[in-house]
Amino acid sequence: MTALEQPSSIADVEQLEELLSRPTQGVIDTMARLDGDIVVLGVGGKIGPSLARMARRASDQGGKQRRIFGVARFTNPQLPQWLAAHGIEPIRCDLLDPAQLAALPDAPNVLYLAAMKFGSTGQEALTWAMNCYLPGMVCQRYPGSRIVAYSTGNVYPLMPPSSGGSVENDPPGPIGDYAMSCLGRERIFSYFSQRNGTPVALVRLNYAHEMRYGIMVDLAQKILAGQPIDLAMGYFNAIWQGDSNAMTLRCFDHVASPPFVINVAGPQILSVRRVAEELGRLLGATPLFRGSEAADALLSNAQRAYELFGRPEVSEEKLMSWIADWLLRDGPTLGKPTHFETRDGKF
């Protein structure tokens, strides 16, 4: 979706889902080269539906016949029907149940989206089971498959904005149980990749945005509600989820053993204060602030991804415009704040 194809406003959820799942030519080419079916584990989350649909659309447009399976517990009862309507075969499964995992279809390609973040404080045991034990189970179930797995920029330490953000070969520095368990997830994938020769890509995503969730949505909602914005985590990255979906699928071209590691994030280091002021202008409301910016923040440098896949097609400025317009028209949100302002790792 080039700048010329970007609408000035996103009318509704149907148009939003179409845009989020619209494949680039690069994704179409990747899906045309890729052999075999795809299993999407954890398809029921915020990213899964549009990512699976983009894989379906790119496969079809590239003339590649394949089955795409969407696997989840499906706490949203409408999602299986939605997936089926878009050419994705839903499979209800508790992935932590070994028998249910074993019963999943064989496939040479796996998208691993399953994770636990919010609510991890107070449920540390389940967090570690989801983020570390389950990856090992999946690696044992699919030892000969290509696996593209989501990780997170939370595995990095906080960095000063002047650094440009963490790069892939920087030493990790996770803060809190969630981030430590995410580094554990990477270590488990790395272990099985090297033991079994499983080709893996680890995608350190930081922070995907669309109209219904993301840091910009959090800020805009606080502005509209007259709630103060905490400035302590004063900087962040933002990337349109459609762009992150495209980069994720193109990682199938780069899976390797040991794993290929890639940051996926927006190109700018954004100031919370300045973004809030711009959102306030677009919303016709004045943001309220609390505290001041700390010297560091959770920041990623995605230059390696841009060299491989090109830069994101949707700018941060366009995201702000779309989000403000969406919220002014009372567009629906997911009710899942990012908690980006958290500095102690407690989610």
Ordered list of secondary-structure elements with their pairings:
Blueprint: H1 13-20, H2 25-33, E1 38-41, H3 48-61, E2 68-72, H4 79-85, E3 89-92, H5 98-102, E4 109-112, H6 124-141, E5 146-152, H7 176-196, E6 200-206, E7 208-209, H8 215-225, E8 228-230, E9 235-236, E10 239-240, H9 241-250, E11 260-265, E12 270-271, H10 272-283, E13 288-290, H11 303-309, H12 316-328
Parallel strand pairs: 1-2, 1-4, 2-3, 4-5, 5-6, 6-11, 7-10, 8-13
Antiparallel strand pairs: 9-12
Helix pairs in contact: 2-3, 2-9, 3-9, 6-7, 8-10, 8-12, 10-12
Report what the structure shows.
Strand 5, helix 7 (176-196) and strand 6 form a beta-alpha-beta unit. The chain has helices at 13-20, 25-33, 48-61, 79-85, 98-102, 124-141, 176-196, 215-225, 241-250, 272-283, 303-309, 316-328; strands at 38-41, 68-72, 89-92, 109-112, 146-152, 200-206, 208-209, 228-230, 235-236, 239-240, 260-265, 270-271, 288-290. It contains twelve helices and 13 strands. It starts with 12 loop residues before the first helix and ends in a 19-residue tail after the last helix.
Name of the CATH homologous superfamily of one domain:
NAD(P)-binding Rossmann-like Domain
CATH class of one domain: Alpha Beta
Write down the overall mean pLDDT.
96
Please work out how many helical segments DSSP would assign: 12
Strand content: 5-15%
Helical proportion, percent range? 25-40%
| Biggest beta sheet attributes | 7 strands, parallel
Terminal CA distance? 34 Å
CATH architect. name of one domain: 3-Layer(aba) Sandwich
